Amino acid sequence: MMKIENLTYIYNQGTPFEKKAIDNINLEIKENEFIGLIGHTGSGKSTFVQHLNGLVKPTSGKIFINDKEITKEGLNLKYLRQEVGLVFQYAEHQLFEETIYMDIAFGPKNLKLDEEEVHNRVKEAMDLVGLDFETMKDRTPFELSGGQQRRVAIAGVLAMKPKILILDEPTAGLDPHGRDEILNQIQKLYEQGDMTIILVSHSMEDIAKLVNRVIVLDKGRVALEGETREVFKRSKELEKVGLGVPQITKFMQIFKEYGNDVNEDILTVEEAKQEMIKFLRRESHD
Ligand code: ADP
User: Fold this and answer.
1) Is 256 helix (H, G, I), strand (E, B) or coil?
2) What radius of gyration do the chain's Cα atoms show?
3) How far is CA 286 from CA 67, 184, 261, 273, in A?
4) What gap in Å lies between CA 221 and CA 133, rounded to an integer?
C-alpha cells in the first residue's frame, strides 16, 4: 500500500547547518500492518513520518501510496490528508477550539462535508477513543486531563478517516494510567481491522506488546527490520544502535545464558510466565 524509494532528506541544505536526517530509505508497508518505528533520539523518526503525510518534501526519493506518487509537485494535499493521518508528539498542544466537538469537527469541515456527515464523524471518532459524545461534546478541551486531551487530538485525526494512522510517541509525558488508556485504545483501533498503523515509540515494552513488524532507524537509515519477535531476538544489534529489548525479553535471554533450557524468544510478562511454568514442570519431573 505504501512504498518508499531512496528517500533522503537534508535539513538546511547548502548552509553550514546542513544535516542529513534521512539517508536513502527504502521500505514497503502493506495494508493492515501494525508497524513499530524505533530508534535513538535524532535517528530520524519524526522527519521520516512527516514525509508520509506530505508535511516535509524529500530532498530526493519518492513515496507512493497505492501506486500514486505523493511526493510529486502540486499533489492535492486534500487527498493525502484523507489517506494518512499523523498524530504529532504532544498532539494536545494543537487543540484550539472552544469545545471538543468543534475541535474534532475542524478537519472534516475543511473537507466541506455536510453537517450530518461531520456530526457522524465526530461522534464516531469520540466513540473510537472512548470519549462519551453526549457528556463531553460541549465541554472545553482545556479542562480535561492530559490523557483525555490527547484522546481529543487523536479523535480529530480519526475523524478524517485515514487509511494509514501514524502516531508519533503517543504516550510521551503521560502518567502510567493515561499511557495504558491510550495504548489500549490504539490496540482496539487496530483490531477493528481497517487501518494500517505506524507507532513511533521509545518504549520497547509497548512495541513488543502491540506491533507486528519493527523498523529500526539509526542515523537516518534502516538499521534493522523484521517481524517483532525476530527483531527483539537480535539484542546485540539493537544495543549497537543504542536500543534495548523489553526487560522481560532480556531477563529470559540472561536466564538462558546461565544454562537454563528455556525459550528466550519472549515478548511479554505473560509469555514469560507460561514459559517459566513449563520450565519448572520439566525441572520437577527430572
Ligand atoms: P527523532 O524523531 O528520531 O528524534 P528527528 O527526525 O527529530 O529524529 O531528527 C533527525 C536529525 O535531524 C537529528 O540530527 C536532528 O537534530 C535533525 N533535525 C531535526 N529537525 C531539524 C530542524 N528543524 N533543523 C535542523 N536539523 C533538524
Assistant:
1) helix
2) 21
3) 59, 41, 13, 20
4) 43
Strands of 2-11's sheet, edge to edge? 19-29, 2-11, 60-65, 68-69
Contact 49, 86 (CB under 8 A): yes
Q: Is 15 in the pocket of ligand 1 (CB under 6 A)?
A: no
**Burial status of residue 48 (CB atoms within 10 A of its CB: 0-12, 13-18, 19 or more):** buried
DSSP summary character for residue 96: -
Give the 3-state secondary structure of residue 238.
helix
Is 112:134 a contact under the CB 8 Å cutoff?
no
pLDDT value of position 67: 87
Q: How many residues does the chain have?
A: 286
Give the helix/strand (H/E) hosting 153: helix 146-158
Can you list the alpha helix ranges (DSSP code H) found in 161-268? 176-191, 204-210, 228-233, 235-240, 247-257
**pLDDT tens per residue, range 165-216:** 999 999 998 888 888 888 999 999 999 878 999 999 988 989 999 999 999 9
Beta bridge partners of 165: 85, 197
Here the cell at position 64 is 507512493
Strand, helix or coil for residue 229: helix
Q: What percent of the chain has pLDDT over 90?
A: 80
* Cβ of 255 below 6 Å from ligand 1: no
- Which ligand 1 atom sits nearest the alpha carbon of residue 41? 4
Q: How far is CA 265 from CA 106, 184, 209, in A?
A: 45, 24, 13
Query: Which of 7, 8, 10, 11 should be mutated for ligand 1, with most atoms under 8 A from CB?
Result: 11
32 lines ligand 1 (CB under 6 A): no
pLDDT at 278: 94
